[in-house]
């Protein structure tokens, strides 16, 4: 009943603004008026002829002889008047139909012109402009709404791109200014070879960090334009996650953490080995960075009954607030914390994870609450029905 009540106003609005319905009703009304007017005029003419014949009829009801010439003349006059009435009626009807067609065309063109004028005002500086579906005919309403949805997506992408560009420029400006200042101070006076070597060695980490940032930006750009090819194969889950855990074990030990691995034996995942390694590596990097000293970081993997695969990375650290969980996978979005200040990143790691999962047609999500571990989960969809079995491939660890 509620659904019916919700649909009735929409139906009434559509019927009130539907142009084909208005045209059909107008044509029906014009046709009915023409037929009614024609019948009325014929009856009126017949009544006039009958009144003209009344004086010739005898009062006693007897037959009255009317000359043939008079009957022929009266029939000819009646036919002329009838044709004249029909011609006038059809002419008025044609004029009314033409006027209605002209008004209808103006109505259609006015709606189209309003849409065009609004679209012409939309630019990079006026992305907030939207078409007004309720001010147009009902048939153009879906077009206006679809155009508005497209503008919403463009505005969201433009806003995120502007924010990311600003964040990346800020992240690149700081190390470049630092390197430039060190170089200027070093070149201010002659120095020994050992001093020059020390300056170059101190600049290497900054160059590596900028190189990783540029590589990550290129990966995200290719992923969004679907230029990154996904070469998916069956990957032994225990072997791949074991190699990834072994790579990060030393980093975990340096921070006083224990790295635990829990993987179903004989489990396989249908994924690109390089992209899988990169995604799990980014999650482990974040988990180790934000985990409390002396806690455990767990890397686990399991296969569902339908062939899909779940890979989870959990750590015992500060929980992620609910307002941050919805945006944590956006580019250059970082949750400020003490661990971030100690080991700052560029805010692209989780965005790369999300893009990787989108390339695979999968999902990534996070669960975090006070008193519980923070868990990031990757879900890889089942393999295609005729996916060829492949041996284990060895991909490098990308961070």
Automatic annotation (TrEMBL):
Any single GO molecular-function term of the entry would be:
protein histidine kinase activity
* E.C. numbers: 2.7.13.3
* Localization: Cell inner membrane
Q: Where are the transmembrane segments?
A: 21-46, 85-109
Q: Which keywords does the record carry?
A: ATP-binding, Cell inner membrane, Cell membrane, Kinase, Membrane, Nucleotide-binding, Phosphoprotein, Transferase, Transmembrane, Transmembrane helix, Two-component regulatory system
Presence of keyword Transmembrane helix? yes
Q: Which residues form the Histidine kinase domain?
A: 167-384
- Report the principal subcellular site: membrane
Span of domain HAMP: 106-159
Q: Which reaction does it catalyse?
A: ATP + protein L-histidine = ADP + protein N-phospho-L-histidine
Q: Which domain of life is it from?
A: Bacteria
Does the record carry Translocase as a key word? no
CDD domains linked to this entry: HAMP (cd06225), HATPase (cd00075), HisKA (cd00082)
Which InterPro entries would you find in this protein's record?
CztS_silS_copS, HAMP_dom, HATPase_C_sf, HATPase_dom, His_kinase_dom, HisK_dim/P_dom, HisK_dim/P_sf, Sig_transdc_His_kin-like_C
Query: What class does this enzyme belong to in the EC scheme?
Result: transferase
Function per UniProt:
Member of a two-component regulatory system.
Protein name according to UniProt: Sensor protein
